[in-house]
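*Target chain*
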Amino acid sequence: MLKWARLLTATLFSLILLAACGTTAQESKKNTGNGENQTEQNTTEKEVKNSEEPESAKDKEKNDAQVSDKIRLMEMNLSYEVNGSKKEETAFLKESDNLDYSLYLLPEYELTGEEPYTDVLYYKENDSHFMRIELLPGDVTMDDAAANVREQLESVGQEVKQIKDENGNQWLADARIYQFKKNNELVTAYLVEKEDWILKVTIFTTSEENHLDPFLKMAETIEKK
């Protein structure tokens, strides 16, 4: 009987040891697994953070560049020609009170609103020399704008010609230009396609006292706010 009691005790003790070892092994495996998961999680978070930081820096640089592009100096020198006489003067930054743009304005000229969607820039000494400025929205095509320009000029005179800029103005390389001449009168309309809008300027001057070049030099500086 004592022999069986000792054998039973030894067997129970062995089972307890085995159970204890199994529990310890499971806990050890569980702890090891948690450690691996924690390491993987930390690594993933670090990789995500590292991948996001350069993108954030790029976004900041892009935003800074956009802000920088919108900052304009208060003045700039403009060179132009009137009837063979070359001049260089300081033009000052002027914001339109009527439309959403700014430009550099020469001292001899004045900018004012004419209609809700049209500005007029004129020569102070003789306001028969002037330029109409319009900003056409992006849903207006160049073909539609050109057809409208031809119709407007033909209402003044039938001899409307499409011409090319002959003075090497790079910003007018792809512009559509229409001109009407009658006696001493000279009317020239320019359509310049921008990123999401079209600049339309119509210049009224004369062949005898031609202010076309200074008007164009100022029109080149037009930028939307």
